[in-house]
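Weekly modeling sync, notes
Attendees: S.R. (lead), two postdocs, one rotation student

Agenda item 3: backlog of single-chain predictions. S.R. asked that every request posted to the team notebook include the full sequence so nobody has to chase files. The rotation student volunteered to paste the first one in as an example of the format we agreed on. Action items at the bottom.

Example entry:
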Amino acid sequence: MKAHDGMYIGGEWRPASGQDTIAVVNPADEQVIGHVPAGTAEDVDAAVRAARAAFPGWAATPPAERAERIGALRDVLAARKDEIAETVTAELGSPLPLSRTVHAGVPVLVAGSYAELAASYSFEEKLGNSTVLLEPVGVVGAITPWNYPLHQIVAKVAPALAAGCTVVLKPAEDTPLTAQLFAEATQEAGLPAGVFNLVTGIGAVAGQALAEHEDVDLVSFTGSTAVGRQIGATAGAAVKRVALELGGKSANVILPGADLARAVNVGVANVMSNSGQTCSAWTRMLVDAERYEEAVSLAGAAVAKYVPGERVGPVVNAKQQARVRGYIEKGIEEGARLVAGGPEAPKEQGYYVSPTVFADVTSDMTVAREEIFGPVLSILRYEDVDDALRIANDTVYGLAGAVWGADDEEAVAFARRMDTGQVDINGGRFNPLAPFGGYKQSGVGRELGPHGLSEYLQTKSLQF
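Predicted structure, as returned to the notebook:
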């Protein structure tokens, strides 16, 4: 795979300040496919200074012109869709059809939504004798994860650009080649020098330097709750704004009277997609006692279709593989019934995990409480609707969820009582304009649509 040996700073590829590199490994065959520089605090400082220098000009650029540049970026991403998909498949292990439709396709949709929003958004309003101005926060430090490498970049960079902010991106070290392709796309789209900057590196060095930098006005981070706490503490000490999209343990609630077969099949597909490496995955399926065993049987049959190496890819690296297999062993140890899968590696080569379904799971079990981030589904039993609500809300997380009912009205009534940031009703479709983010320990702030844009704005009022 093509890999740059420098950082994208100030509109050009510059040599890294150090000699250390990061090997990029294909998780499907464990082969090294490239190397990128391991950025230092010096590289981060250079990128932040470039972003700071570019900020006044970009902030003063009329929103319509910013919209044109974001639209051009969308067009470049669309034109390079096949290359992006192949790169994601190579460094993440995602099956190519998923890489084409989700990993390469959704970012084009999201970028397009912000091209439209930048042109139509009202950046000022009248309130009585005041004019309220919504102005860009400044320099944004964006730290993105490996599970949706391009989508997470676009979900942060596009609204920041629409708001008039400049950006320094530190992508995950497992998937930096996709980030380098994105940097090329910003250059091809004609973004002014310094508006977007890229520093590759490990979180403990480059990520920490970015979060701590005194000239970064906002840190937008997606990743684990543990790291999010550290970033929040660092930002709090500097009175710096944060946007944190963190972990999840989302409930898929199947109410009595719902279409059980459809709800179970869609639920299994949701958990197995992207090898279970989705923070919003519905990893807890809640079914009433009367239909519980039928749901377990349906889930076992559904998961059998997810063959490792075909319909489901590997997890991202050896550490993640060991972690997920450890959770499966813990589930068995704590008394959950193994319906499908298990801790054994399904293939000799590659970081594969067997798609796994547990039944007889209770809320006090580790597999029901902790985010596994792998293809593991837990099925829990409830006695009545109030019991289902108690179980659904019995988690420190609150990122997403689903409700299936006999009709939308019944499902919505239940969803209104769930402590979570986004709920799909009877298989509701993805909406790139809907706010995405969590309650409780699932984060602070929202991404996507106008709510995502507002994260990058600050408010000023003028009184007349």
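Discussion: group reviewed the output briefly. Residues 96-120 form the longest helix (25 residues).
Action items: rotation student to repeat for the remaining queue; S.R. to check formatting next week.
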